[in-house]
Prior knowledge:
Largest sheet: 6 strands, mixed, barrel
Shape: elongated
Number of strands: 10
Oligomer: single chain
Strand content: 15-25%
Amino acid sequence: MFWETVRLALRSVRRNALRSFLTLLGIVIGVAAVIAMITIGSGTTEKVKQDISKLGSNLLVVRAARPPRGGSADFTPRALEEKDVEALTAGLHDVKAVAPAASKQARLVSGALNLAAEVTGTTPEYFTARDWNIASGRLFSESETHGGAGVCVVGQTVRSEFFGAGDPDGQLIRVGRTTCRIVGVLEAKGTSGFGQDQDLVVMMPLAAFQRRIAGDRDIDAIFVAAQDGVSTTEVLEDIQGIMRQTRRIHPGTADNFDVRDMTQIADAMTSTTTVMTGMLGALAGVSLLVGGIGIMNIMLVSVTERTREIGIRLAIGAHEQHILIQFLVEATVLSILGGLIGIVLGLALAGGATLALSIPFVPSMAVIALSVGFSALIGVVFGFFPALRGARLDPIDALRHE
Length: 402
């Protein structure tokens, strides 16, 4: 009996193909919009996670605090120093690495080729803190670090621009006004979330950078990587305590340094994109309600058009529940069909958008299943009143209807 009712519903849909298509168009647009928005939002969230993870896992960055623009600071500005690094290295226990770093833009020259790149002076621990591995060659050694040797490790972009697919190990390049010998090539990091090429870099020992490139002993940042499983919040508190003690900051006085927990930043950015995804999905879901109202409107018209048919069926023995089920099934078939078409369209739109925006394609099976279920629910809810109206027609009045 049920399958016969479904057959009748499908026949009615085919009989009024254009009207049926226009009816389910609202559902198609609603489902497609919801799936596309949520999939694009999920891809954006995943992109944020990937960009943050490129900076390093469980990473904290210590920098000198800067006074506010146009106002007076409630602390005495002070650059980071070597003794800050020594104090953190000696005082922190649940960390993988503590690495100072200083950076500056410089012109690189190799033969007739030249390009501008970021040059960073640091220690071998920097690569542990940043989860940055060597693709070929080696890192500079501890002796080269302390001796300020003229050696360097280059990023993949520098290698490809100067040496193509060749091995640059042992080659000399000029960095600013000094010459350094390449000892290794870093693995590719790709583009950051701000559009910066992270592989357009040259890494060299901090002492050599300070003496040959920067001309001072300033340290721009200290990178601290917590051990796996250790709370970065606890490490942050330890860093603040050590830095305040090393810099002799009195109680009640503001810090003249700043500690950024990249894990917290990543969580905050992920939470923001998740909320935005939910809001966009909710706005797109409004069109589903509009589509449901369209189904109700068309089903009411359908009941009016088929009044004599309903009267004949009731007169030859059909029960009210048969009429009710027939129109409910018809409304549900329309909404489910619209939902299925909307899923295909939504995934196609999301796929195109992710390619254009260069973000991961992250479809959610839960959202797809929910869309189908919600489509069916809309058919039942908005089709119930027209179906009930048709089921309660008086057979005699229905047969007299013109």
